[in-house]
């Protein structure tokens, strides 16, 4: 476990909260209904459960997806391989 925890807001990391808020705002602007907040609440509660297990889970996922992108032969081997 790390010595420090990331900045938290409403039970989730600040980055997760901002991403959820931006997506919710976009859904609200597209559909123009208050029902756009219902999925945001569900996603937020899922984030709270994830952050209870590991508060850096979103950071790990984002770093992995940015630094280890899929390669063209992923479907064949079901893993990333590298050129020699």
Describe this structure as you would to a colleague:
With 84 residues, the chain is mostly helical. It has a two-stranded antiparallel sheet. It has four helices and two strands; from the N terminus they run E-E-H-H-H-H. Helix 1 runs antiparallel to helix 2. The chain has one domain.
Outline of the structure:
With 84 residues, this protein is mostly helical. Helix content is 60%, strand content 5%.
Would you spell out the secondary-structure blueprint of this structure?
Blueprint: E1 8-9, E2 12-13, H1 14-31, H2 37-53, H3 57-67, H4 74-77
Antiparallel strand pairs: 1-2
Helix pairs in contact: 1-2
Key traits:
flat, mainly alpha, single chain, 5% strand, 2 strands, 84 residues
What oligomeric arrangement do these chains adopt?
single chain
Question: Strand pairing plus helix content: what structural class?
Answer: mainly alpha
Tertiary shape: flat
Question: pLDDT average, as an integer?
Answer: 86
The largest sheet, given as strand count, sense and whether it forms a barrel, is: 2 strands, antiparallel
* Gap from first CA to last CA: 35 Å
Number of helices: 4
Helix content: 55-70%
The sequence of SSEs as H and E is: EEHHHH
User: In the residues, how many domains can be counted?
Assistant: 1
Strand content: under 5%
Low-confidence stretches: none
In angstroms, what is the radius of gyration? Answer: 17 Å
Strand runs, count: 2
Q: Give me the side-by-side strand order of the main sheet.
A: 1-2
């Amino acid at each position: 476990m790390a010595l420090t925890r990331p900045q938290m807001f409403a039970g989730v990391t600040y980055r997760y909260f901002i991403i959820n808020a931006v997506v919710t705002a976009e859904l609200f602007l597209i559909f123009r209904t208050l029902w756009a907040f219902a999925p945001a609440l569900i996603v937020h509660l899922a984030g709270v459960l994830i952050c209870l297990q590991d508060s850096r889970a979103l950071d790990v996922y984002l770093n992995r997806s940015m630094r280890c992108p899929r390669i063209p032969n992923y479907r064949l081997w079901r893993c990333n391989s590298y050129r020699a």
